[in-house]
Amino acid sequence: MHKPRFLDQVAHELGDRYAFTGGFARGRRPFQPAHVEPNWPRDRSAEIRHIKIELALDFEHRRISGTATHRIAAIADGLATLEFDATELAISAVRAGGEPVAFETADRKLRITFARALAAGDEVEVAIDYSATPRRGLYFVGPDEAYPEKPVQAWTQGEDEDSRYWFPCYDYPNNRSTSEVIATVPEKFTAVSNGALIENRHDSAARTRTFHFRHEVPHSAYLITLAAAEFAAIEERAGATPVLYYVQPGREDDARRAFGNTPKMIEFFERKIGVPYPYAKYAQVAVSDFIFGGMENTSATTQTADTMHDARAHLDFTSDPLVAHELAHQWWGDLLTCRDWSHAWLNEGFATYFEAMWCEENLGADEFAWNLRQDRGGYFEEDGHHYRRPIVCNRYRAPIELFDRHLYEKGSLVMHMLRRETGDALFFKALNLYCTRHRGRNVITQDLQRAFDDATGRNLDFFFDQWVYKEGHPEIEVSSAFDDKRKLASVTVKQTQKTSDAIGLFRLSATIALMDADGRETRHRVEIREREHVFFFGCDKAPKAVRFDPGHDLVKTLKHKRGREALELELTRAPEAIGRSAAAHELGIEGSPQATAALRIAMLGDPFWGVQADAAAALGEIRTDAALAALIEGLGVAHPKARRSVVRALGEFRANARAAEALAAVLEKGDPSYFVEAEAALALGKTRDPRAFAQLEKALERPSYLDVIRTHALAGMAETRDDRALAVGREWCAYGRPPRARVAAIGTLARIARHKEPARDEIVEFLTPLADDREFMVRMRLPAAFEEIGDARAIAPMRRLAERDLDGRIHRRASEAVAILGEGRSHIEEGNRLREDMDKLREQNKKLQERLEKLEALTPARES
Ligand SMILES: [Zn+2]
Questions:
Q1: If I label 645, which of 42, 144, 394, 405 is the partner at 20 to 30 A Cα–Cα?
Q2: Ligand 1 ion: residues within 5 Å (CB)
Q3: What is the pTM of this model?
Q4: What is the pLDDT of residue 214?
Q5: Are 693 and 663 in contact (CB under 8 A)?
Q6: Helices 577-590 & 609-622, crossing angle to 10 degrees?
Q7: How far is the centre of ligand 1, averaged over its atoms, from the C-alpha of 322 (Å)?
Q8: Residue 317 C-alpha to ligand 1 middle, in angstroms?
């Protein structure tokens, strides 16, 4: 499942902290309250071998009715009763072996009593007639007066435990069955489900069509899918496998742009895993209003229609991460499935790492490193501002709580470290062994460990213990010296993290690179186990730069103070872009005129866009006139992602007419990239130039991919501190406006409420009813907005949201907001104060830098 990660990805593409959940920074809290008990995997009394779902969809009444038939086998003697999960389903009859049996429903369960108890191995077919108007599991989408263009669709979402809302089942991953879906829909509609289509029957009298799918490879109930709408189908092939895209008619070109790399990815993953794609077909169905990015239903992935994009967006946006993620799940998640949710990183961490691996294959090592850097950023954000937990963890209130940055991003990074620890040959050998040994089965982390033990000959218990079963990461401090007499360079490496039962000292293999004045490097592999090590390396001259973990392969924080000359050398000569970028970042902190000059050159000329972008960001940190001049020059860089960063950096120059003018010009004459224009709107707002507001109002009229320009113009308006932003924010919150713009407008209002005390009451009152909004994204955005406002009156609506909302993610976010708001405003205010102090310090720093520049400019004159 690609959960808000798709939205995060868009947010990342935009550098947009307003996009989804808001970027209100706060401190680390416990993952769970102390009273939350462990969840152990469920017991089974019967094996469910086959599930057949016959269903008619009534789009008008948003109702389903039909029969679910399970072929079951008793596991032990004396099976007299059997329970199925069934939530909000109206059960009308149950038959076992064709004979009616007694049943009762209570507490989200259907309990049947067999006429006589089954013996171990006895097989029987249990048929359940039912109907429902589902609120979860199966979703009907269609137009209303506010959104008349919305297509009529139905689609399902089973993971984690929502299949029970659309068919009675054993709704837990530790059972696998073959499956069959027979769906009757209006005659113009196409239904898509798992496996092969074995019949498509038209009933002209009833004006319906019945689609019959059969899936022959056993899988867990949460992976059963059904989507139905008027779809256009595009068919391609990957070897013998049919590859299909089902999309709204008229969007075929956007679909090819979004999904077109799928066949190549299938071939790449087959080669890497050494196991052919295992199913009859691979379909991707693009649906509206999807509540995740994508869902890896076996052989028939559901994707958010939002990922389809036009040619202009394709300049600097790609669906490849989403497509690769869901495809990788067909092996990791579907063919092998976590036995219970506590091991769900075996699904999600793998799929996330395979996104990065496709990026490596398709775009090369530097893009791969950027992809992993994004994973690290996500993990560090959660670890630093939300909570810290072991990746394998069974203390949770709802399984969806585990689907977080630890599961996805840290899981991916752990896979990467495992690859670096074992080397490519053994890593892929072990993955192949793990896949072939466990295909068609449920897995736990120990299965992966055993496969690595057996394939590599190494015992990696220490690795899994520190990275998967314990929490946190090493905090490293590095310093270096040179002994000229003995011709020895020494590098001291310390682990400074506080250790406890939950986190110990780490055992790490790391690389240390020593660079001479010409940029030539020697690299040494070292092993770290202790709190402190001193490593000695013989060399004729003192190294000009020492780099620890130059590829940024380890999950760690690093303190390593280096002089400006070393940083400049790294910025120009480090072979990996990720190393040059790290140097750019530190030069931005150093901030001298020489650093400014070096960053300017990197921004204009580095061969990798990411380094150009980070050099621009560093110039934005320096904020001197020289930095501003360089950034204005940087508006001409060719790569749109680098240009985006230049524009963003210009937004750091508050109340600076030159910066504002440059940004206004970008908006006025337009940019080939939507994202650059969007960023210009936000940055212009941040300058607080008096002309900004009018420019942003104009930008609100521009349509763009996912409304990025509008969302950024709305965020920019909040930054202007202009009183007129309040009315605009209210207007764009309205039901009927594009959903993403509504979400952005909530952010605008929250920001205004924080900064303009007199508007606070009005805004809290205005936002409160949105807790009942029909739009998922809107409800999901509210808790962060109220946390930012920090008004205790929001506790009641947030508590209501936490109690009533059916979505576990909203439930969790709203509960967090209740806790934070309940602690009073003191630390929220403290956070705001700190932020303001930081702004003041930056201003002072800027003035000092300017004085320094003037002094330096005078110096040569005096010398001559
Ligand atoms: Zn996933």
A1: 405
A2: 1, 348, 351
A3: 0.94
A4: 98
A5: no
A6: 10
A7: 9
A8: 20
Rounded CA-CA distance 394/252 in Å is 43
Query: For residues 649 and 618, what is the distance between their CA atoms, to the nearest angstrom?
Result: 8
A 10 A CB-CB count for 113 gives 14
Helix/strand/coil percentages in the chain, nearest 5: 45, 25, 30
Question: Could you give the count of Cα atoms lying within 13 Å of 840 in the half-sphere of its Cβ?
Answer: 6
Rounded Cα distance between 833 and 28, Å, is 19
Report the phi/psi class of residue 721: left, alpha or beta, with left for phi > 0 and alpha for psi in -120 to 50: left
Q: What are the Cα distances from residue 765, in Å, to 164, 242, 436, 701, 722?
A: 37, 53, 58, 27, 21
Distance 80 CA to ligand 1 centre (A): 38
Phi-psi region of 138 (alpha: psi -120 to 50; beta: other; left: phi over 0): beta
- Tokens read off for 803: 């109690």
> How confident is the model over 688-738, as pLDDT tens digits?
999 999 999 999 999 999 999 999 999 999 999 999 999 999 999 999 999
Query: Token match 């009444």: residue?
Result: 61
- The C-alpha atoms of residue 89 and residue 64 are separated, in whole angstroms, by 10
Strands 153-156 and 138-141: antiparallel
Cα of 160 vs centre of ligand 1, distance in Å, is: 11
pLDDT in tens, 138-169: 999 999 999 999 999 999 999 999 999 999 99
CA of 401 to the centre of ligand 1 (A): 14
In 529-674, at which residue ranges do the beta strands (DSSP E only) sit?
532-538, 545-548, 557-560
Residue closest to 414 by CA, chosen among 335, 471, 495 = 471
**Are residues 292 and 222 in contact, defined by beta-carbon separation less than 8 angstroms?**
no
Closest CA to 6 of 324, 221, 459: 324
